[in-house]
């Protein structure tokens, strides 16, 4: 149904190999596959290393060259704008939510309610296997999560609901949560129970997929806009509070019935000011990492020392500016511990190396493609990310790092 994720332009064979060897390997090998292993590695000597303050580095080709570097144009365009991305390693699929709209910060609701889609890709090569349209009464899925049987769970902030799609029987289910709750990100705990943020009602939601019991818990800070949610190696759940001035990440121990005690942890920018955490992940040692949107930074929170550190990865957006700067959005961690991020406004994908502070990035051909919240890494190390305005799912093969 779809073409493979990696494609190349209609150059002649010799020109193709020469062009890609000289361009793709210059920056960091971005989007190059093992087919180019025979290319000379001397091209990598052209990579520019920009001197930076302590604990921060960048390895990046000149921005004017990035369009040529990332010469990959992905598979067949999706029918609607993609958002959240989830990996099903057990069954070999990548799932993508297609809301068909942008979720505004003020309420994360589409302007009108209309059915969206959920797309299915092959984990092996990125082939688009199908797009499944939601029934009437459903609307714009934002994020997706896969349970241990392969069912796809999704949030519907526009119609205030949580839904499930069974890819075997092709049946849909939906549970309404109350007006103006706007469920957003979601994750499963170690017992297989579903937890999710409720952006507008300032709550954390729980659902037992077996009994269908639902419980909602209030967040201590009023109007904190709970956004991203994740689970750490010990099974503790963490979420971000995205409201201006809240500047918190929060944690709780999941229960089997739903009621929880939430603990908030204040995080700060490098200058000591407030930040707006977006998506969130935990590394193998339990350190918490989060993106910070328009400040163009990645935050690190250490639960043991109760301290946060801020790492800028690009030019921050001046107040009120929404173009020509950066917005760090999606985040994921690979097996090596590299912190991958998307830069929606800068159209960049990259990773940050903790300890050394090294940053490696690549820029998409068009600054309007907007890689936003959707990024995930499969068991083989391949990084998958969605182009919100490009209507595509892209890959960074085998998570190749330099």
Description:
With 402 residues, the chain is mainly β. The protein has one domain: YVTN repeat-like/Quinoprotein amine dehydrogenase (Methylamine Dehydrogenase, Chain H). The strands form eight sheets. A four-stranded antiparallel β-sheet has the order 3-4-5-6, with no helix packed on it.
Please indicate the percent range of residues in DSSP E strands (runs of 2 or more): 35-45%
Q: Specify the biggest β-sheet.
A: 4 strands, antiparallel
What is the helix tally? 2
Q: What gap, in angstroms, lies between the N and C termini?
A: 34 Å
Output the strand order for the largest sheet.
3-4-5-6
What would you call the shape?
globular
Shape-level CATH architecture: 7 Propeller
Uncertain residue ranges: 1-74
The residue fraction in helices comes out at under 10%
Overall mean pLDDT stands at 82
CATH superfamily: YVTN repeat-like/Quinoprotein amine dehydrogenase
Return the CATH class: Mainly Beta
* Computed Rg: 20 Å
Taken together, the total number of domains comes to 1
The total strand number stands at: 29
Which class of secondary structure composition applies to the elements?
Answer: mainly beta
CATH topology: Methylamine Dehydrogenase, Chain H
């Amino acid at each position: 149904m779809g073409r493979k994720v990696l494609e190349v332009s209609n150059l002649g064979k010799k020109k193709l190999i020469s062009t890609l060897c000289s361009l793709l390997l210059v920056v960091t090998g971005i989007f190059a596959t093992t087919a180019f292993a025979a290319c000379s590695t001397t091209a990598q000597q052209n990579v520019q290393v920009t001197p930076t303050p302590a604990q921060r580095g960048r390895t990046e080709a000149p921005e004017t060259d990035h369009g040529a570097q990332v010469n990959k144009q992905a598979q067949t365009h999706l029918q609607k704008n993609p958002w959240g991305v989830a990996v099903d390693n057990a069954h070999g699929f990548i799932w993508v939510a297609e809301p068909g709209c942008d979720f505004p910060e003020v309420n994360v609701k589409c302007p009108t309610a209309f059915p969206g889609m959920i797309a299915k890709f092959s984990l092996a090569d990125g082939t688009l296997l199908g797009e499944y349209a939601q029934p009437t009464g459903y609307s714009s899925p934002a994020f997706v999560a896969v349970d241990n049987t392969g069912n796809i769970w999704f949030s519907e902030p526009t119609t205030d609901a949580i839904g499930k799609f069974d890819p075997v029987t092709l049946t849909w289910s939906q549970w309404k949560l109350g007006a103006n709750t706007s469920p957003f990100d979601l994750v499963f705990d170690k017992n297989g129970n579903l937890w999710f943020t409720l952006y507008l009602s300032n709550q954390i939601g729980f659902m037992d997929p077996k009994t269908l019991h639902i419980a909602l818990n209030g967040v201590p800070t009023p109007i904190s806009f709970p956004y991203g949610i994740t689970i750490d190696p010990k099974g503790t759940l963490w979420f971000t509070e995205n409201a201006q001035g809240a500047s918190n990440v929060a944690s709780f121990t999941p229960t089997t019935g739903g009621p929880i005690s939430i603990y908030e942890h204040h995080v700060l920018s490098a200058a000591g000011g407030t930040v707006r955490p977006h998506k969130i992940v935990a590394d193998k040692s339990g350190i918490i990492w989060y993106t910070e949107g328009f400040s163009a930074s990645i935050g690190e929170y250490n639960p043991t020392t109760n301290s946060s550190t801020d790492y800028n990865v690009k030019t921050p957006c001046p107040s009120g500016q929404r173009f020509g700067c950066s917005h760090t959005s999606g985040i994921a961690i690979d097996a090596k511990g590299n912190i991958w991020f998307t830069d929606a406004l800068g159209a960049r994908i990259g990773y940050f190396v903790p300890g050394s502070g090294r940053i490696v990035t690549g820029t998409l051909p068009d600054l309007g493609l907007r890689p936003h919240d959707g990024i995930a890494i499969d068991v083989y190390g391949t990084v998958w990310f969605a182009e919100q305005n490009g209507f595509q799912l892209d890959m960074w093969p085998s998570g190749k790092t330099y």
